[in-house]
Amino acid sequence: MLSAKSLFQEILDHDESFRLFCSIAASGESQGGWENARIAALVPPSERELAPKIARHGADEDKHGRIFNALMRKRGLERVPVPPETDYTMLLERHGIGLAHENLKGDEPLTVPDIVTYLAHSRVTEQRASEQMELLRKHFADHPDLGRAVKMISGDEDNHLAYCHEELLRFARAGHGRVIQHTLRQCALAEIRVYRDVSLAVMSHMGRILGWSRAKSAVLAAGIHGVYAYERAVGWRRMVSLRMPERRDALGGPAAAAPEFA
After folding, report:
1. At CA 98, angle to CA 155 and CA 233, rounded to 5?
2. What is d(CA 104, CA 96) in angstroms, rounded to the nearest whole number?
3. Among 66, 108, 148, 230, whose Cα sits 20 to 30 Å from the Cα of 154?
4. Does position 259 have pLDDT exceeding 90, yes or no?
């Protein structure tokens, strides 16, 4: 029977599928690290107190990229190029979500609306990341190779999500509430489309590597389309709500060191 655990276990057990999975994950995390580092460097003067938290966010993402690379090295594997159709981060930018990389490469300070846009985008994407890592943590927390990595990354993603909630609520109190809600909705609706497309592309590549039958691939594709239909109808709402998190000042300290993988 197909399940999230059996599907991921199949990917984990095969070197080529595991290498593709980790390469995609490492690339996305590294890109997120670069984006946050640039945003931290370009924070407007009025929001300089936010810069260390944004930098911590970037440091966490960089760490996650290193963890996925280390998991590959432990199995004697090297990264492979990421197929463009599976590049979640770049596809989001192409859809106009978040801050344009062209602007982040310059030296012009960002504006407060830019920071609000960044936080809204992060609130949506960190919701996805937190849920995905929670799923992996549920099934693989005790795995001898993945366990420590999954638990650390899952905790970090929860911290990132808490930070986004807290900072967006602060900006909402400062008068940006209507813009925040509009931006969150835009981001959420774009993200669920990109997530659907990336999921289909990843499953297509995995199917070729693992030799899935047409029937199995069709069932998985139908499941992805079903998730999208639900998210398009009502599921996107979980990505736009704001509430004060239990974890306050979640990014108020230095990033924890990555675990060693012998």
Report:
1. 80
2. 14
3. 230
4. no
Apex CA 157: angle with CA 152 and CA 160, to 5°? 130
Query: If we measure between CA atoms, which residue out of 65, 62, 68, 66 comes closest to residue 37?
Result: 62
Helix (H, G, I), strand (E, B) or coil at 72: helix
CA distance 46 to 49: 8
* Range name among 87-91, 99-103, 137-141, 252-256 with the lowest pLDDT average: 252-256
Cα→Cα distances 131→34, 179, 262, Å? 23, 25, 28
**DSSP at 1:** -
Say if CB 236 and CB 189 are below 8 A apart: yes
Residue with tokens 């979980």: 238
Give the Å distances, CA to CA, from 166 to 17, 210, 243.
Answer: 37, 43, 8
Pair 203, 227: CB distance under 8 Å:
no
Q: Residue 1: is its pLDDT beyond 80?
A: no
Helices (H), ranges, 141-176? 147-171
